[in-house]
Amino acid sequence: MAMRVKEVADLVGISVRTLHYYDEIGLLTPEETTESGYRLYTDDDLEKLQQILFFKELGFPLKKIKEMINSPSFDRYKALVLQRKMLLEKRRRLDKMIATIDKTIKHMKGEIQMTNKEKFEGFDFSRNPYEQEARELWGDEAVDKANAKIGSKSQDEQEAMAKAMDSIFKKLAALRHGSPESEEAQAAIKEWYDFLNKNFGCYSPEAFKGLGQMYVDDDRFTKNIDRFGEGLAKFMRDAMAIFADSKK
Predict the structure, then answer these.
(1) Is the pTM of this model over 0.70?
(2) Which class does domain 76-138 fall in?
(3) 25, 115, 173, 240: which could form a disulfide with 212 (CB 3.0–4.6 Å)?
């Protein structure tokens, strides 16, 4: 059952203003609304909010969180596994610091003697290694690699890529009024999947599915794709999801 912003704020323990701010910056923008225009948070929105708050707790800035969770390759399961590792690492450091505080109190009471090295056990200002792992999975590195791959191609190769893309989009546009499950639609979407993997890097079926959702969620993608035919972005999203699910 969808929830209003005040209900979500009470459930999670954050302010309504925080949720409004996440909406304003495009970090968490629920699509469902009431007849009066109030935002409604679905289970999917709550799952996304959970991801945001886990990353926030781990010290990621909101701009980086937005970049990661909106990445076509974002995988919620992988994110949870990584977040668990990061939280365990954080707990390990906190336990060390608490032990250092306890020792320091005893040292002040004259019960024990501490070395200077012992006074700073638990302090570690080096970068968390798992933060780099997160950036590599869902950050700007994948984009950098894709851009570098395109930039390494000659002008003729880039023109050939553009023609191939147009051909695939036109083929899909001609099929968009039919079922995305049809043999023809799935054959055409497989062409798109193979094209992306050949020219832009390695897309897992799950990342491919996420990319399809972005075609609808991001107005820039929708506008560009729908130049080939109104409703093409939604058709591609559905076809890509069906294709990805068939590979599981």
Answers:
(1) no
(2) mainly alpha
(3) 240
